[in-house]
Amino acid sequence: EYMGDLLTKMNVAQAVRDYILRIINDVSGMKVMIFDKETAGIVSMVLSQSDILEKDVFLTELLDAENRERMMHLKAIVFVRPTQDNIRLLKLELHKPNYGEYHLFFSNIIKPDAVAELAKADENEVVREVQEFFADYYAIVPSLFSLNVNTLPPASIRDLSTQDTERIVDGICSCLLSLKKRPSIRFQKTNSGVVEHIGKLVLNRMEKEKELFHQARRTDTPPLLLLLDRREDPVTPLLCQWTYQAMVHEFLGINNHRVSLRDAPNVKPDMKELVLAAHQDEFFDINLYTNFGDLGIRVKDLVDEYQNKHKSHQNIESIADMQRFVEAYPEFRKLAGNVSKHVTVMGELSRLIAEGSLMEVSQLEQELACSEAHSEAVKQIHEMLDRPQVKLVNKLRLVMLYALRYEEKGHSELSAFQDKLRLYGADQFALRSISDLIEYAGAQRRGGDLFSNKNFLSAFKKSMQRELVGVSNVYTQHKPLLDSILDQLSKGRLKDSAFPFLDASSPKDKAQDVIIFIVGGATYEESFFVDQFNKTNAGMRVILGGSTIHNSASFLGSIKAALGVADVL
Predict the structure, then answer these.
(1) What is the spatial distance between Cα 494 and Cα 227, in angstroms, rounded to a whole number?
(2) How many Cα atoms within 13 Å fall on the side-chain side of residue 568?
């Protein structure tokens, strides 16, 4: 119970951060920290390099780094995953130690025979302790985590990758143990049976490691682990996004909090690689889910605040004005690093949106995702395909959404769209990605009927504010399938027939703490809906996890990989 009540908050970022700080603080004196490539990423999600170096950590190293300098006066804290490869590297390390003593911490359950192998290898008696600290997942924000497994679940259990499946089970179990939860398990009934299979593996692990899971906090109603399959909602990862974190991921890509602007024109060298992490950037933390229109206003407020403090009187009305201001005042960039960073990101997002007519593309995407109007859809898609400024990949996504929406209607204009795409430069591989999507996640492959969901047909339009020149209204009608699942769950109406319990004896009471894991990957749009749900449902706390966090490019790339097609987009 060393973490007191912190973990009762259902906060994955806090759980991982507390584990890492405890590991560092428990070993006194000057030390070196040794990670593997995964744990280095896991730690970087919750602590900065300077946070670690402040704790008498002299150096951080990777376990597989060659020719490390011998420094016997230092203590080594090793934090790695308990993989066979890491055990092999540790045995070599212990055979010829570089440091005076070793404190071994594993991010998940280590097999007893691996511990025995390490004990045997420790001929120099430098190992002081071996412990398990369950931080085997990437905590993005308090209610969202990923495993950085970029593969989608296959169409049948027999095609499951053992390595990916083990990593998913390891990650889920690690998350449960770090939050001290022993949940009931429900799964989305699908044609493939993959999520049920993963649920059974998690249940088996909980049974096998009874003692560890026995430490779970007892609550009036047991927590719930709900396993979903990405295949059941292929629409959400295909759509343009308009909240800050989701937009950055869709248009620029976020990898372990890092954003690359290497290909962006007119960006200063010190802004080519940026870190956008809620735990070390207050503006980003506050505005994760702020829409694009409001975001421009908030960035402008920051610039205005700076101007007021420094008696500057530039007239700033647009994002372009902000960029010019940042360029003209180098001291502003030094004094307000975070502000200039966000001005730079906003500038690049605005450029991409304007150049690619992405607001118009997005509006049509929303109509395709949310409402049934075939002849109007056909007309609008033809018009959008004829626009030279719309990128080919975005034209393809529109046709994909059409193919999903009207797959069973018999009104297929697909061949006409494909002819037009071919005319504008699409090769056979690009065109094949449309049929790949249907093969992977078409109506025959999905268990539920995605488009009969009332949320998908509610065609209300929610406009964003237009208070900055250059930021126009966009539509955000779409709600992911997860939204209606959460709604039904909160009302105790989630059907057992569609979401069965793995253990029939599980109590059917409404769970207060829910961990939802999407096999095949979650999205930042779904994370936004979980955040909204947590704010408006005081009696429940939800954490979302996914094999990975998708944007449209990664989702389409994963479909190609799942079907064994070369990635061409």
Answers:
(1) 13
(2) 15
Tell me if 336 sits within 8 A of 322, measured CB to CB. Answer: no
Mean per-residue pLDDT pooled into runs of 10, the chain (569 residues): 49 95 93 96 93 90 92 96 97 95 96 96 96 96 96 81 93 96 93 92 94 78 94 95 94 95 87 91 91 85 71 68 67 62 90 92 90 89 96 95 84 85 91 91 81 37 32 63 94 92 79 95 97 92 97 91 59
Strands (E), 377-531: 513-519, 522-523
Residues 526 and 232: beta-carbon distance below 8 Å:
no
Tokens describing residue 486? 């959460």
Strands annotated E in 117-223:
127-132, 138-141, 144-146, 184-187
Integer Cα distance of 43 and 19 in angstroms: 10
Task: Report the distance separating Cα 132 and Cα 108, nearest Å.
Answer: 6
Sequence length of the chain is 569
Any idea what DSSP says for residue 414? H
pTM for the complete prediction?
0.90
For residue 506, what are its two tokens?
Answer: 């599980």
Integer distance in angstroms from the first to the last C-alpha of the chain?
Answer: 49
Determine the Cα angle at 281 with ends 10 and 466, to 5°: 100
Helices (H) and strands (E) in the chain, counts: 23, 16
Find, among 548, 464, 12, the residue nearest to 241 by Cα: 464
Query: How far is it, in rounded angstroms, from Cα 462 to Cα 455?
Result: 14
* Dist CA 528 CA 242 (whole Å): 11
Q: What is the 3-state secondary structure (H, E, C) of 103-117?
A: EEEECCCCCHHHHHH
The answer to whether 531 and 543 have CB atoms below 8 angstroms apart is: no
Give the Å distances, CA to CA, from 288 to 194, 255, 291, 405, 532.
32, 16, 9, 30, 12
Measured CA to CA, the distance from residue 422 to residue 461 in angstroms comes to 33
What's the angle, vertex CA 439, arms to CA 408 and CA 378, rounded to 5? 45
Instruction: Give the pairing type, strands 138-141 and 144-146.
Output: antiparallel
DSSP string, 534-552: HHH-TT-EEEEEESSEE-H
Cβ proximity of 81 and 106 under 8 Å: yes
Contact 77, 38 (CB under 8 A): no
Taking the CA atoms of 157, 158, 160 and 165 in sequence, report the sign of the dihedral they define: positive
